Amino acid sequence: MSLLEPYQMGPFTLPNRVLMAPMTRSRTPDTVPNELNARYYVQRASAGLIITEGTQVSALGQGYPYTPGVYSAEQGAGWRGVTEAVHAAGGRIFAQLWHVGRMGHESVHGQAPVAPSAIRPSGTIFTPSGLQPLPTPRALPTAEVPGVIEEFRQAAQRARAAGFDGVEIHGANGYLLDQFLQSGTNQRTDAYGGSLANRARLLLEVTDAVAEVWGADRVGVRIAPGGTFNDISDDDPAETFHHVAKALDSVGLAYLHVVETSQASPPQGLDHVGGPTALSRSAFSGTIITNGDYTRATAEETIAAGKADLVAFGRPFLANPDLPERFRLGAPLNEGDQDTFYGGEEGGYTDYPTLTRAS
């Protein structure tokens, strides 16, 4: 097995195992995908699969300025322009469905952010007026939880109408579904809190709702076992994420997308099970995507050892639109410009050279 060999993922024959990871770029000023966004994704259509940047399922689900949504007809039409262009270039593209929960600010959408519990995360957040302290969120009443599930369902429907090949549910990195799942952010006493089964309930109910729209073999779920990004934590990440992976295994998903916080040293609580991907592999029998600072060499080792089936690359794909070809040729990689990762226009977004343009 090799990174550059094809892979059969449910109904999809991927030409290679080099995937484009979801990356927030904040290049969508009015939340409606535009021609510039389409050009960015088309440039990277040689990926085995493109997973879009986080795409909010509702206005309240938005955490940062200039990120795209998929909850209005206008947004759906904008995404249709992206998917048609990617398909015309021979690519495959999934939409990542996202609700940030407490990682938001009222200056972005005019409402207090929501979360499983009213626990303020540490740190600041970028807003239209600059960096601001993260606020204390409003705890979602039990009666409002079905509405969140419905937002994911409707977003899945819009994504399907927009021509995507499938969707990925963002259950990682300290956003809403992860906040419900992990004990450090969930202090509820209703059916969505307390026991591990209750804390996992929202993620699993959202997954079922989205799978009803798409069919499970066109739905992926992203998780981050042991991750601490966005001030998230869990008392027993090994138990929590083994439970989640095992529960998702019965759904028949397209894949489970696992974020590795550090390949060199597994997160505390996961060191005895070999890290996030190894933990997930022990419970999930389907396709596993791994992501987290991989090089070509470490990705090849992971694929060859059977630890994962596919590898998603973030910053390398950001700076190298033709990443699979560079891997094939052993060509040097462009370095990404961190000053242009978020916001702006073409600079640092669609102007990275390919091997053809460089020559």
Task: Describe the structure concisely.
By secondary structure, the chain is of the alpha/beta class. Helix content is 32%, strand content 16%.
Q: Notable features of this structure?
A:
single chain; eight-stranded parallel β-sheet; 359 residues; alpha/beta; 14 strands; 32% helix
Characterize the structure shown:
This protein has helices at about 35-45, 75-90, 105-110, 145-160, 175-180, 195-200, 200-215, 235-250, 275-285, 295-305, 315-320, 325-330, 355-359; strands spanning about 5-10, 10-15, 20, 50-55, 95-100, 115, 125, 130-135, 140, 165-170, 220-225, 255-260, 290, 310-315. The chain is an alpha/beta fold and about 350 residues long. The protein has an 8-stranded parallel sheet with strand order 3-14-13-12-11-10-5-4. A two-stranded antiparallel ribbon has the order 1-2. A two-stranded parallel ribbon has the order 6-9. Strand 12 (about 255-260), helix 9 (about 275-285) and strand 13 (about 290) form a beta-alpha-beta unit. Helix 1 packs parallel to helix 2 (about 75-90), helix 4 (about 145-160) packs parallel to helix 7 and helix 8 (about 235-250) packs across helix 9. It is globular. The model has no long low-confidence stretch (mean pLDDT about 95).
